[in-house]
Amino acid sequence: MAYDLREPNSLFTTKLQWREDGKMYPLRTAAYDTSFKAVISKALEEDHQFAIVAISNVSSDIDSSETYQLVSVNEAGIVIIWAVINEGSTRIIDHDLGLRPGAQLKMTQTSIIRSDGFVYSNLNSSRKMVVNCMIMVPMNPAQFLLGTNRGTIISFVLSKAAKLIGPKIYRNNFGY
């Protein structure tokens, strides 16, 4: 889900009182919701059935608030790259099921990166491997590291054009 904090508070009629200061805050609804993707096709169902464990923005040389990218990873190690588009008008956009009527923030799934089935194949074993964190490599903004509950680190790049620095998988020797 994505919330557009640029939308005026007056659009949201339901209010919630904050306990600490007693102020009333609007209860916002998501401008864009991707939950429908889990049921529209069998292939997408597999990619969207696991819990998301981390989200990161992708740094860019272009300073644009109209379009930017987000990277999400789920516990199976499936990385999804999203383009976030801020529409300037309230026109009808495609037939996008995730867009709330009147909202101006749209997300488009641009690619999926699967970690060679390494994590996914270990999900059904007795010692279940789960991805639990993601971080961008500071020297290479197109490269990310995934950490697992079994001490394995998986390295990936956002596109084939980007260079991978270091090995693809780091494993520990703790007897797992």
TrEMBL record:
<dbReference type="GO" id="GO:0045504">
    <property type="term" value="F:dynein heavy chain binding"/>
</dbReference>
<dbReference type="GO" id="GO:0005868">
    <property type="term" value="C:cytoplasmic dynein complex"/>
</dbReference>
<dbReference type="InterPro" id="IPR042505">
    <property type="entry name" value="DYNC2I1"/>
</dbReference>
<dbReference type="GO" id="GO:0045503">
    <property type="term" value="F:dynein light chain binding"/>
</dbReference>
<protein>
    <submittedName>
        <fullName>Uncharacterized protein</fullName>
    </submittedName>
</protein>
<dbReference type="GO" id="GO:0042073">
    <property type="term" value="P:intraciliary transport"/>
</dbReference>
<dbReference type="GO" id="GO:0005929">
    <property type="term" value="C:cilium"/>
</dbReference>
